[in-house]
Automatic annotation (TrEMBL):
Membrane topology designation: Peripheral membrane protein
Occurrences of domain ABC transporter (ranges): 2-236
GO CC entries: plasma membrane
Gene Ontology molecular function: any one: ATP binding
Keywords for the protein's UniProt record, in alphabetical order: Amino-acid transport, ATP-binding, Cell membrane, Membrane, Nucleotide-binding, Transport
Protein name as annotated: Amino acid ABC transporter ATP-binding protein
Localization of this protein: Cell membrane
Highest taxon in the source lineage: Bacteria
Protein family: Belongs to the ABC transporter superfamily.
Length: 242
């Protein structure tokens, strides 16, 4: 579903990604982890072209993201993306947040978009809040709305960029529970997160990054029980002991 081949990226002189290669199969959940500044968020944003790359190739669902001829807006409409800071429109109601892109991008009728949006709002447990505005909801609720919005576009894959890092600790589980449910239903997912409990529960594979490079790319059990690199072992020791 997602292929990343020999991708490198620079900001000016600074190289943020170095020769990164990995893939996500249909129905697979891949968690990308590593220390801050390791390039995780940059890597996931290259998948739908939000971050252009200078070298390498990225293919999503058979389409090349890196080909200049590719219609990126169209491609992005099929890849759900959930950001750290929700990115909801504050001046629109929750229902309007859910329907806007469906109508504008997918060309659905207002009725169809509403029906679909509310179905997914119900799926994340927030149907009663459909007429509220984002500012009237907690951070965890806003993030669940953002997930419902992404799902209502019928994505072939979902990208999550540290979806819980802006949340209070008490709200993290309500978002992770929705993501666990998606994983169990077979959604193809690439998730940048520090939540190792979530990774242990649902990831098929772990991609561990450090300093812009993919240091480990292996099955979940191998990573947690027998990480090959000293850098990954050091990272796990710090995260799991505290």
């Amino acid at each position: 579903m997602i292929e990343i081949k020999n991708v490198s990226k620079w900001y000016g002189q600074f190289q943020v990604l170095t020769d990164c290669t990995t893939s996500v199969s249909k129905g697979e959940v891949v968690v990308v982890c590593g220390p801050s500044g390791s390039g995780k968020s940059t890597l996931i944003k290259t998948v739908n072209g939000l971050e252009p790359v200078q070298k390498g190739e990225i293919i999503v669902n058979g389409q090349s993201v890196t080909d200049p001829k590719t219609n990126l807006s169209k491609l992005r409409s099929h890849i759900g993306m959930v950001f750290q800071n929700f990115e909801l429109f504050p001046h629109l109601s929750i229902r309007q947040n859910l329907t806007l892109a469906q109508v504008k991008v997918l060309g659905r009728s207002e009725d169809e978009a509403t029906e679909r949006g509310l179905k997914y709002l119900d799926r994340v447990g927030l149907l009663a809040h459909k007429d509220k505005f984002p500012g009237q909801l907690s951070g965890g609720q806003q993030q669940r709305v953002a997930i419902a919005r992404a799902l209502s576009m019928d994505p072939v894959a979902m990208l999550f960029d540290e979806p819980t890092s802006a949340l209070d600790p008490e709200m993290i589980n309500e978002v992770l529970d929705v993501m666990v449910g998606l994983a169990q239903e077979g959604m193809t997912m690439m998730v940048v997160t520090h939540e190792m409990g979530f990774a242990k529960k649902v990831a098929n594979r772990i991609v561990f990054m450090d300093a812009g490079k993919i240091v480990e790319d292996c099955a979940k059990d191998e990573f947690f029980n027998n990480a090959r690199s000293e850098r990954a072992r050091d990272f796990l020791a710090k995260i799991i002991t505290h």
